[in-house]
Specification:
InterPro entries: Aminoacid_DH-like_N_sf, NAD(P)-bd_dom_sf, THF_DH/CycHdrlase, THF_DH/CycHdrlase_cat_dom, THF_DH/CycHdrlase_CS, THF_DH/CycHdrlase_NAD-bd_dom. Catalyzes the oxidation of 5,10-methylenetetrahydrofolate to 5,10-methenyltetrahydrofolate and then the hydrolysis of 5,10-methenyltetrahydrofolate to 10-formyltetrahydrofolate. It catalyses: (6R)-5,10-methylene-5,6,7,8-tetrahydrofolate + NADP(+) = (6R)-5,10-methenyltetrahydrofolate + NADPH; (6R)-5,10-methenyltetrahydrofolate + H2O = (6R)-10-formyltetrahydrofolate + H(+). This protein folds into two domains: 96 residues, Leucine Dehydrogenase, chain A, domain 1 (Rossmann fold), CATH 3.40.50.10860; 129 residues, Rossmann fold, CATH 3.40.50. It has ten helices and eleven strands. Strands 1-11-8-7-5-6 form a six-stranded parallel beta sheet. Strand 9 and strand 10 form a beta hairpin. Helix 1 packs parallel to helix 10. It is globular, with a radius of gyration of 19 Å. The protein binds 5,10-Methenyltetrahydrofolate. 5,10-Methenyltetrahydrofolate (GUE) binds next to strand 4 and helix 10.
Length: 297
């Protein structure tokens, strides 16, 4: 029996529709749109594509997209000066500095310069700390937030389930584990050094793969009926010469024969990441305006 396909594209579309209503409410109550400032340094083509989708999603939801494109040879001091201006600008609710940054920049230092209450990526150590201690003021990284949304939509209450997260990055693995813990899951964080990784994965009712290795998770690593969330977005050579295709961290064709439900790549977690960026921007905007954000946003 093939697994249920978790349609992230559809879930993201319906979330974005709801967010557009909230954005309209915000605009009507404050007389200004919620605004997201994006910063792109250099011309990495993949980053340019991602920024374009984020900007068009922002505008489509009735929010303002303020973009700053800086040349690849921008100094760190210049970037920090821009962040200071955006921090001080009352019309800016969210600041996103697209990663990766060019090599002359220290990404951790740049992120630490962002006002935590405008840090809609949730990458600032203050937001990581807030998430870790369960402070509702936390802005939570968009990708794990999107994964959690899909898990709850698929499974309902997650409490007591065993979740295995493969990957320990600050952007996905660690915050994902924190979110699952806050939902009362039993959480295992596995990684490249984990002994008997397939066996650990086989114990998971919820398996989140965020390692960045194409199709690493095989069908026989999956517990029958498990819910599998594939965070990987890996570009690999396609059958046709010169062409590429996207695959996840999970070998989809094998996994779908075993899992109860699974996200595809593309069309799974990726679209949810962008929807959650809009969500975080609206949350930040409401807080900054002293307004109560709608329940369940
Ligand atoms: N400061 C910062 N914040 C980020 O959130 C951030 C970043 N930097 N750097 C790059 C990564 C990557 N990322 C994605 C967002 C959407 C899709 C997405 O929508 N993917 C589609 C299609 C992808 C395609 O066709 O290439 C899908 O999975 O269906 C993917 C990846 C956000 N990132």
């Amino acid at each position: 029996m093939a697994a249920t396909l978790i349609d992230g594209k559809a879930a993201a579309a319906s979330l974005r529709e709801r967010l557009a209503h909230v954005a309209g409410f915000f605009r009507a109550s404050t007389g200004r749109p919620a605004a997201l400032a994006t910063v792109l340094v250099g011309e990495d083509p993949a980053s340019a594509v991602y920024i374009r989708s984020k900007r068009s999603a922002t505008a489509e939801a009735g929010m303002e997209s303020l973009h700053h494109a800086l040349p690849a040879d921008t100094s760190q001091a210049e970037l920090l000066a821009l962040i200071e201006r955006l921090n001080a600008d009352p019309a800016v609710d969210g600041i996103l500095v697209q990663l990766p940054l060019p090599s002359q920049m220290d990404a951790a230092l740049v992120i630490s310069a962002i006002d935590p209450d405008k840090d809609v990526d949730g990458f600032h150590v203050v937001n990581a700390g807030r998430l870790a201690v369960g402070d509702p003021a936390a802005l939570v990284p968009c990708t794990p937030l999107g994964c959690l949304h899909l898990l709850k939509a698929t499974l309902g209450d997650l409490s007591g389930r065993h979740a295995v997260v493969i990957g320990r990055s600050n952007i996905v693995g660690k915050p994902m584990a924190m979110l699952l813990l806050s939902e009362s899951c039993t959480v295992t964080i596995a990684h490249s050094r984990t002994r008997d990784l397939p066996e650990v994965c086989r114990s998971a009712g919820i398996l989140v793969a965020a390692v960045g290795r194409p199709e690493m998770v095989r069908g026989d690593w999956i517990k029958p009926g498990a819910c599998v969330i594939d965070v990987g977005i890996n570009r690999v050579p396609a059958n046709e010469p010169g062409k590429t295709r996207l695959v996840g961290d999970v070998a989809f064709a094998e996994a779908t024969e075993v899992a109860g439900a699974i996200t595809p790549v593309p069309g799974g977690v990726g679209p949810m990441t962008i929807a959650m960026l809009l969500r975080n921007t609206l949350v930040a905007a409401h807080r900054r305006a002293g307004l109560q954000a709608p329940e369940g946003l």
